[in-house]
Amino acid sequence: MRTTQTLDLNDARTIIDLGIAEAERTGNPMNIAVVDAGGCLLAFARMDDSWRGSVDIAIGKAWAARAFDVETKALAKLAQPGADFYGIHASNDGKVMIFAGGVPIKEGETVIGAVGVSGGTGKEDESVAEAAAQAFARG
Fold first, then answer.
1. Which of the four pLDDT bands, split at 50, 70 and 90, describes residue 108?
2. Residue 99: domain span
């Protein structure tokens, strides 16, 4: 029997808590989304005073990081005019977010989900997402 390695709701809550702690440390309220290995939303948190317009962006970043198993900041570089993935943001009914802040979460070498963060600059979003993913990482 084959089993799928994936995040569960308790994992997602932990990742969100780690993201919130990092966002509070930096003083920037964020929207934080966590998806499982199948790209399905497990949990979401919008911190007080975070941008309402970033809700869908955080969810999209998490989904894109899992869909392509790559940080969205790396995907953004590949999606520039003349690059191999130019126009990818229009695929999948526009769900692909190519802004920094989406990070796959791994157990060993296997991607088991992803976190997406939005509400600041790309660098700020990426910092919170990476901190949450690295603090949670298994193996």
1. confident
2. 9-136
Number of Cβ within a 10 Å radius of residue 93: 6
Q: Within a domain: residue 45?
A: yes
Tell whether 62 is covered by a domain. Answer: yes
Cβ–Cβ contacts within 10 Å for residue 15, how many? 28
Taking the C-alpha atoms of residue 115 and residue 94, their distance in angstroms, rounded to an integer, is 18
Do 43 and 34 form a contact (C-beta atoms < 8 A)? Answer: yes
- CATH of residue 65: 3.30.450.150
Q: How many domains does the chain have?
A: 1
* pLDDT digits 0-9 by tens, 11-28: 999 999 999 999 999 999
SS3 state at 26: helix
d(CA 85, CA 98): 11
Give pLDDT, residue 50: 97
